[in-house]
Each structure stands twice: as structure tokens, then as C-alpha cells.
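ok new one. same drill as before - C-alpha cells go in, u give me an amino acid for every spot. 203 of them this time. try not to just spam alanines like last time pls lmao
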């Protein structure tokens, strides 16, 4: 039987020991604290997982995520997601973010030759920011002239477009070449998310 004095000492020792430990997942959850990401979605028919999976992964690490679209009206996903963008595309300033991502889905075609979308991508690249695009959205980067000499992937329908604009095609689900990260569709959303987190400095 332990004496009452020993019990008191043991209780204080245990309390001090546990207090010195980080909260469960604390370090992992805040590794991107202070980082900011901008996700650009189509007003209609963006691909739900390609927004939800990467943004959830970034937020879990402490990254602040802003969603933009052509307007701040509620945007609809191909699988039924309804998202109210935080800002309109014209308000987006790449200098305010560490990462700019173009989300795919059939609606992303609206940005293929969109002057403001191209300007945002080019401004981000010129400022040394990270750029991401998934599914058909890598064509936005390609047509903005940002994939010349870069290894990239996309939904198979966009292969010709990427190659015609100077990209080196990669068959993988997701690929990083310097500060540009691309992925080929919703099944690659998890890998895409991991590459974004890693590129931003998360573990």
C-alpha cells in the first residue's frame, strides 16, 4: 500500500509530465499556421472532391483557405455541393496567398481562356507563389503559358492541350514540378492534397 504522501507526490509528477506534452495532434495541426491558400472554383459544375479534400487537408494543418469564383453567388458542384465563395475572382490578389489552386470539374472550362484567371495565375507565378490545378484545370495554367517545359498531368482529355502549350505530359495521378502541382482528377484528390501540404511546408 502506498503512503498518502507518496500518492500526492506521484499525482503531482504525473500532472507535470502530461502538462509538458503537446496536445494530441497539436504540432501536426498547426504546421501551416499563418499560410494562406486561394481555391478558384467554377460557378457551376466544379468537382466536389477536388475542392473538399485538399481544403480539408490544408485547414487541418492550420492553413487559412479562401474560395473564389466569378461571383459570390452560391456555386454548385457536380455531385451536389453548394459553396458560397468568400470573394469574387476580380477581388483575388495572388500576393495575399502562398498557394493558388484551380479546381476542376466540367465547369472549369469557363477559366480556360478567362483573362482574369490567366492574370491571377501569371501574377502568382511571377511572385514565386505555389500553383495547383486538378482534373481539366491544368489547361488554365497551360493556356496562361505557365506549363512550358514543365512536367504536368491532367484529365486525359487535356493531354493534347497541355502538350500543345509546351508541357511534358506525365501519366501519374499527381505530379509536382518546382512550384507547380497538377493532378488528373477526383481519384487523385488525396495525393494532390498531400503534395500541396508538403509544398507549403507541412509534414
Amino acid at each position: 500500500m502506498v503512503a498518502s504522501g507518496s500518492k500526492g507526490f506521484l499525482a503531482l509528477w504525473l500532472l507535470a509530465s502530461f502538462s509538458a506534452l503537446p496536445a494530441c495532434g497539436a504540432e501536426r495541426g498547426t504546421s501551416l499556421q499563418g499560410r494562406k491558400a486561394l481555391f478558384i472554383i467554377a460557378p457551376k459544375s466544379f468537382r466536389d472532391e477536388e475542392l473538399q479534400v485538399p481544403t480539408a487537408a490544408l485547414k487541418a494543418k492550420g492553413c487559412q483557405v479562401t474560395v473564389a469564383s466569378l461571383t459570390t453567388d452560391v456555386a454548385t458542384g457536380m455531385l451536389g455541393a453548394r459553396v458560397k465563395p468568400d470573394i469574387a475572382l476580380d477581388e483575388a490578389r495572388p500576393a495575399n496567398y502562398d498557394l493558388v489552386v484551380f479546381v476542376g470539374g466540367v465547369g472549369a472550362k469557363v477559366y480556360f481562356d478567362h483573362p482574369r484567371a490567366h492574370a491571377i495565375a501569371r501574377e502568382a507565378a511571377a511572385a514565386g507563389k505555389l500553383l495547383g490545378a486538378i482534373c481539366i484545370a491544368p489547361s488554365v495554367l497551360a493556356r496562361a503559358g505557365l506549363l512550358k517545359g514543365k512536367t504536368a498531368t491532367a484529365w486525359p482529355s487535356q493531354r493534347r492541350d497541355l502538350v500543345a502549350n509546351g508541357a511534358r505530359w506525365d501519366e501519374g495521378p499527381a505530379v509536382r514540378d518546382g512550384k507547380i502541382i497538377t493532378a488528373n482528377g477526383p481519384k487523385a484528390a488525396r495525393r494532390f492534397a498531400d503534395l500541396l501540404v508538403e509544398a507549403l511546408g507541412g509534414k
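The two ends are 46 Å apart (CA to CA). and btw Helices lie at 4-19, 26-29, 48-60, 115-126, 138-143, 159-164, 189-200.
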